[in-house]
Every structure is written in C-alpha cells, then in structure tokens.
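Known limitations

Files may contain more than one protein. Parsers should not assume a single record per file. Below, a two-record file is shown to illustrate correct handling: read the sequence, read the token line, then continue until end of file.
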Amino acid sequence: MQDMVQLSVLIAIMLLLELTGLGMIKTAGLEITIMLVPVIVGAIVMGPAAGALLGGVFGLISFWECFGKSSFGVVLLGINPIYTFLVCVPTRILAGWLCGLAFKGLNKLDKTNWLPAFTAALERFKSEGFERVNPSILKATILNDYPGFEERQIGFKRFSDVMKKLEKEGVKDPLNTDFSAIKK
C-alpha cells in the first residue's frame, strides 16, 4: 500500500512537471528534461519494478509530447510513428529498471561495511527513543535498508552469529540489546 502511495505521488509530480512545462526545458534546438529525476528516486526507493513503471509513465509523456508540444518529436512522429513510440517508451522503461538494478547492486552489505551499517541501525533506534531492541527487529531493519541481505554475505551462517560478533567486537550498543538472549 505504501509503495502505491509513493508511486502515485511520483507520477503526480511527473504529470505536474509536464503540465507546467518545467519537466522539459526547451533551448535553441535542444530539449533538456528533468523528468528522469522522479524515475530515479522511485527506482532507488522502491526498486527496479517501480523504476520501470515510472520510466513507462515518462516514456508515455515523451510520446505524448510528439503530438505537437515538441518540434523534434513532431518530426520523428512524421517520419515513423512506430519507431517514435519505440524510441520514447521502451527506452525510458529500461532506464528506470536499470537505475533500480544499479542501486540494488551497489547497495549491498559485505564483510567490509556490515559493522557500520548495524551500528547505524542501532543508533537510529536510540534516536527514535527506543531503550532496547530485539535482535529480530534489528534484522528486519537491516533487511529493509538492504533488501536481499543474507548472513552469508558478511561471512556468517546465522543471524545469532552476527549478534555474537557484535558483542565480541565491543560494539557500543546504544540500546543495551539483549545479546544474552542468543542461543549459545
């Protein structure tokens, strides 16, 4: 439900950019667009599928501009409407999808960055007023921040092994996480 609301807001922003003329900045012989910004934001926040959907909306808006709003688009449409559609829509879908995939690929935990990520998650709980946090809640938070997270990525078999390593590393646990609840 939350993704649908976010998608709706980003689509509304794209339509607003189009209707106000702020989305396509026209200069002498060149059109510069900022319409890709909501596509990229959606791809990063909601993933590749949302990026593809938003890219499709951007593509349809671009194709619609070829019916009189864009002089270059009018010329393309006059040459070949089918190729114009293929230039406008599938390429934008692909752009949104690839942005989401690229972010997903770059945003992974590994053996070099997992400790700061876990510490930051614990600090976030503290700043939100929590006094203690259950390890399963911590794992859910990490999964939310790093979709597809698995303990094996950072060199552990189970999440309890991760928690033991946090305790062993002497992580200054701002929440007094109940490490003793971990099965030995």
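...continuing to the second record:
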Amino acid sequence: MRRLIVMVEILQKIVVPEGVKVIGQNTFAHMKNLKRVSLPQSVTTLEHNVFYKRQSVTKVNIAAGNKTFKAKKNVISSKNGKSLYLIYGKVKSITIDAKVRQLSIRRAIKLQITSVRWLVA
C-alpha cells in the first residue's frame, strides 16, 4: 500500500474519466504535487473535502457539457451560479455574485483570502 501512496503523491495532473458521477470525500487529499484536475461531463457530486489541504491545485477544468458545475477564477460553483462549492489555489480576494444563495463549502483549503465582496442584487 505504501507504494500506491507514493505514486499518488507525485501525480501533478488528473483527468477523471467520463462516466464517473461522484468525486468522493478526500479524493485528492494526499496528492501533494497535484496542480491540475479535469472533471468530465458526467460528474454530478463533489463530496466535502475533495481538495482538502491541496493548496498546490492551480487549475480545475470542468467539461463544457457538465450540467452541474462550472469553474471560473479558482472557484467551482453550480452551473446556475446559485451555489458556491469550492475555492482553490492561491486566491487573495473573491467576489461572490449576487445570485449565489448557498455556500456549500464545508471546509476551505488553507486559503489566504484577505478580501471577500458579496454583490447585492
């Protein structure tokens, strides 16, 4: 089992294959060098702590046809923009759109955010 963990720790890029629907809790937690993640159209659920303690992640690409999630400027949100799921990478400030009605972030990655601005409709 130790070899598997060592191999996982050196991965820098993960492309989740089409057909995967759930990214489970702590999926990428031990991937110390992970920088890029690509999620397919089929993903409908991101369980909590998917990127737990992964400050190294700089890019999450979500397939254009994904009907549940979108990624933009280090934020993963619902496609309709009403739920915010994850903030990743090195983010100093964030603006939350007025249509966001739910923050579904259970535990933030060690963020260094110094400014949060929530737009009002």
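Parsers that stop after the first record will miss the second one. For reference, the second record is described as follows. The first strand starts at residue 13 and ends at 15.
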